[in-house]
Amino acid sequence: MTKVAIIGTGVSAFGAANSLAKEKLDVTLYDKNSFYAGHTVSLKYQEGFTFDIGPHVSFTSDERIQSMLADAVDGDFDTHDYKFNNYWKGAWLGHPAQTNLYGLPTDVIVKVIADFVEQGTRQVDIRNYEDWLLVAYGRTFAEQFPGQYTYKYHTTPARNLTTDWMGPRMYRPKLEEMLYGALSAETPNVHYIQNFRYPRSGGFGRYLDKWARASHLELNHHVERIDARARTLTFRSGSTASYDALISSVPLPEVVKLIAGVPADVTAAAARLACSACVLVNIGVARDDFANTHIDYFYDLDIVFPRTSYPHMMARSNAPAGCGSIQVEVYFSPKYRPFAGKPEDYIEPVLRDLIRCGVIEEHDKILLKHAVYIPYANIIFDHDRADALSIVRGYLDDIGIDTCGRYGEWGYYWTDDSIKSGERAAEKAVSRLSR
Ligand SMILES: Cc1cc2nc3c(=O)[nH]c(=O)nc-3n(C[C@H](O)[C@H](O)[C@H](O)COP(=O)(O)OP(=O)(O)OC[C@H]3O[C@@H](n4cnc5c(N)ncnc54)[C@H](O)[C@@H]3O)c2cc1C
Question: Ligand 1 in contact with 54 (CB < 6 A)?
């Protein structure tokens, strides 16, 4: 039978595999890890806590993907209203902060609104994300909120980013909305995501269990070499596998290193692709009443993290009865803020800042504290990305490798986008095979 090799067992790889299942093909998914699911794996600790790799919830509006995921857990999911808070210099604000200024000191509110009004009278050429923020919010808000957040989360100042990743992510308020949110603690929900689905048990990773059972997986198969001419994969163990079509969800800078004889311009382009890395600090607490949201954002530069999330709020089963959990993200990137040291070095600074912000208290009993390093987190849309990406993907396409997923297409992909990306790669592989 014609063989299709898929490298990876994340959602994009299953998107490809599920779509190929209707063809008469011999499809195998190879993964370097001893477990499947890639970035959607759920970590289960013996203390009884479950943590995903960063807050993972399904907020897709695509009804086909919604029912695909519902079927994957036999309908055993809950739908939650998505709740967020913002923290800025001791003040807790609703979300998004630009329409929820209530709670900030009066002089800050006055400055934010005065700048916003003044900005409306100016003409600005938008060359980068910093310009966009200035035009949308005025200088004070742009600098103090999304400007600082961008630096913490994307590891580089907003002027180094483009605007082509934004979509509906950043809400542009009218003056009336800003004024209303400055005067009232209750505001309409204008967030682009209103609710999400999450499995009742097993963490987000449970969405993949059924798909994994229906597929041919080869775990502990670390691809170390791709011979695109001979159409073979060589694994770390020394064993090999042949293929007729290849789909890869491996991060682009990594996949290029697996191929012998890559032209110098492609290697150079791959080195220009920027992605953040993340230290996740997973904390289990002996009480569960410290959070009323799913995610909180932190703007101050002297707080080590930009974002916290609360897995016990996504599913009660993510923590033992009466206990709560906090996942904290701290960002790095090889290009802009290289990671040094050990993930555990961040546990104490994170706990210190959680106490400073009042998320937990000094006397709280911590039942679990564990840090994990995630080498690939969010694609950084800097000014190199588009050009470097077209060189790398153009080359891979020429040698017959179809890439998919967040790190295979190098996009700001949520799980639904990654699934669809896998489906597109499968379609492409089938059309290659029929040529
Ligand atoms: C912090 C964070 C929060 C997120 N939150 C959400 C959210 O709330 N909702 C949402 O929908 N999406 C969210 N996402 C996005 C989501 O994680 C991705 O869209 C999706 O998981 C990407 O899947 P993938 O298959 O493309 O990649 P991956 O899951 O990374 O799969 C790639 C696979 O390739 C394997 N691999 C790599 N190299 C080799 C090799 N040499 N040999 C063999 N195997 C190899 C890896 O082990 C891995 O299993 C979030 C992402 C992050 C980082």
Answer: yes
